[in-house]
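Interim report, section 4.2 (structural modelling).
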Amino acid sequence: MRDFDQQYEQLCQHVRQTQRLASAAEVLAWDEHTYMPPQAGPYRAEQLQLLAGLVHQRRTDPDWGARLEDLAAWAEEHRPDAPETVNLLRLRRDWRRQKRLPQSLVEELAHTTSRAQQVWAESRPKNDWNAFAPWLEKVLELKRQQAEALDYQQHIYDALLEDYEPGATTASVQAVLQPLGEALRKLVQRIQHAPLKTDPGLLRRHWPRSEQEKLGRWAAEQLGFSFRRGRLDVTAHPFCTRLGPHDVRITTRYDEQFFPSAFFSILHEAGHGLYEQGLPAEQYGLPLGDSVSLGVHESQSRLWENHVGRSLEFWQWCFPKAREHFPQALADVELEQFHRAVNHVEPSLIRVESDEVTYNLHILIRFELEQELLTGALSVADLPQAWNARYEHYLGVQVPDVAQGVMQDVHWSAGLVGYFPTYSLGNLYAAQLMQAAEQDIGPLGPQWSRGQFTPLLQWMREHVHQHGRRYDPAELIRRATGREPEAQPLLEYLTARFSAIYGL
Amino acid sequence: MRDFDQQYEQLCQHVRQTQRLASAAEVLAWDEHTYMPPQAGPYRAEQLQLLAGLVHQRRTDPDWGARLEDLAAWAEEHRPDAPETVNLLRLRRDWRRQKRLPQSLVEELAHTTSRAQQVWAESRPKNDWNAFAPWLEKVLELKRQQAEALDYQQHIYDALLEDYEPGATTASVQAVLQPLGEALRKLVQRIQHAPLKTDPGLLRRHWPRSEQEKLGRWAAEQLGFSFRRGRLDVTAHPFCTRLGPHDVRITTRYDEQFFPSAFFSILHEAGHGLYEQGLPAEQYGLPLGDSVSLGVHESQSRLWENHVGRSLEFWQWCFPKAREHFPQALADVELEQFHRAVNHVEPSLIRVESDEVTYNLHILIRFELEQELLTGALSVADLPQAWNARYEHYLGVQVPDVAQGVMQDVHWSAGLVGYFPTYSLGNLYAAQLMQAAEQDIGPLGPQWSRGQFTPLLQWMREHVHQHGRRYDPAELIRRATGREPEAQPLLEYLTARFSAIYGL
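Predicted structure of the assembly:
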């Protein structure tokens, strides 16, 4: 094929143009969560519906698809190792998947999830389950239609999971999460009867918001997050989104009575942001410029939030700075005390504020429930009760209301069903990547205690970020760590860290 | 025509869909000015170029245009007085105009003006004319192409003016602005030799930004601006934009050393916002839901900023509140002193901070220069010198640098050539509308002194806002005031207000 380069460039131009529309929609969605006036919601949903429809139309354009099929087949045979071929094969996989979805369904999903998120944001503070439930019904019905259209081999949930974690299945995730859950419940019990205690009470003091913002921004910047190519704003539910090759936005929420809320969510979202900022900008919009999976994404956020951000060495470096910002709250607090407090383990209600040990139990609950919701084994009407029962069973806590229970997360309202288990996969990957990085570089703690985070970031840039979607998640982990993805590194890490803290 | 309603609805659906794209672009433009990270600019320009192209494509779609022509012709004959006919005739006028513009020109204008604004925003603080000049050249060249494509009878400038003030021509504007300028220069001279003086020095104290923001928001809300359907943010150059039927955003900039900057620009932009919030929401995207002209738009902003916001009665009500926010700066200041200070007249450098008497001289300078730039009589290279000479001639001031001179306004970088004279038309209309409103309602000052602004707002809603683009600007003013648009009310108003202040 003599004009391969030209044909490839034309195909890519179509993709880049589509990405300009998709990223325009991302700007609108970001604005919806950050700054949009309350009454502007319904119209925003109309705008997003239109853009989603246009994007889908372009992604499933039959002429373009036919040219893609031809070119991908040729490249696969004649240039199997070229980066262009990676892009073509990934684009072909996406195209074959996308074209199964009817235009009307894509538009309806965009519109309904935009409205459902608005209703969620309004009704959650009021504990108004009845206002939200009909919207959750609608979203679930559309997700069922989506899953059926996408098709699956074993479980309807597989169809949705594939969007977030290519190659993972309900069964494969179940096989990892169930035993992990059992091991973690045992670790929680050991901690609850441990000889040493931690006192999180000192975190419940007055932490002025503006100082939290300054410290959080500074810390994110020190880890390597660029504010020339990014922002930090406030939303009900923290997130990270990329609006262009040089535009990565993270958000947080501030609780003036509880230090960890904002600080660790900033580190978490900055971790996502570092991944996005580390993707090859010149490939933006193409598979090689895109993140590989939500699990790998989450490995980056959890890594900076927990492995780094809750380590003793990080606080050896950061604590003096924190004291400058919070002279009152930290006046009588010592470094070690503080470090133990931010590692306090206790079964609790809110996933995003839970400790590292119980976190995956929160995920397990959602993973089970959303499978049942999707198959219809569980009705939306029965969901709050099922949620509460599951929290009692796995975590031994009583859920007092829906705001602290079933309505705490934005995900389902946003149509993100099948998303939760990638959080646990991310925890697995993070621990495994950290082990590998330390094997390569040597112990990282001493660097962190001097505020040096570049070696770790460079390692991630090299082994994870730069590859975009070149490999599927499992292969990426295998190449980066030399081993299959597994739970052992996570259990070793958690056991080591919390044995030290609780004197197990 | 039996299926008129159905055909009309289909045409409108096309227009509404186009508007969803156009308003999505507005969201991106708003974000570009408010929150976008510095390095995200070039990609944002690509997104805006694409959206502008899609919008233009839809607005000039030949099938749609043919159906519009048919339906408008039928409606004009059979339902001349129906509101649907107003929409159709206005849409037809727009369509006939839009289709003269080549797609490529529209896209290039969107891209170039997005980049030119970014360059302007970066180079203005650095006084870097050389960085900006090539971009101004590019914009002007594209505006010339646009004007030629749109066609005109007498002056190339007419083609651009028509976009902002339908029905106005270079000659008609000249005929009003020249004598107005002469009269104002005389009034300025009388004020400079007046028996009484005003002291603006007291405005140059320390005004904490957060307090300015609170007072400004509160005042805008008291005038009637709804923050449930709007926002206030910070930009280099204040503006107002509407992103949806219930989403009107205004911006300001804060100067902690000078009170009027932010406060009066908030009142000004809130005036624009009140107009936008007063347009019929159900007609959003259609001519009946759109503002009629920039001149009429500016009449609303200048009315609330100046007629209301700089009146003694307004400050009788607002001054105690201002004192709560600025106890230090206003500790030794009396109401009358303060009111005289915010009405200080003095020829100066910056248009947006100039007083009501000299303001239109700033406009006259720009009106003259941009005509010459467009025809090529003046080159971009010679522009700074010409600017400075004109400021010397009309205002008797020396321009020290380009930031305070030719680079002070965003307009030209944004492609807004032909826009400036609408500011003076707005001042004319504002005075004329105020006279008519007071004839209808009675003296308004006493109401303002009690913080009652609803009667004036209601009058504007009834006589201006609710009509959308039903009438051309001149006819709207005629219907609202019973007279042709004229300069006399403005001169009467300025003479009365400043005679009182300066004891003329």
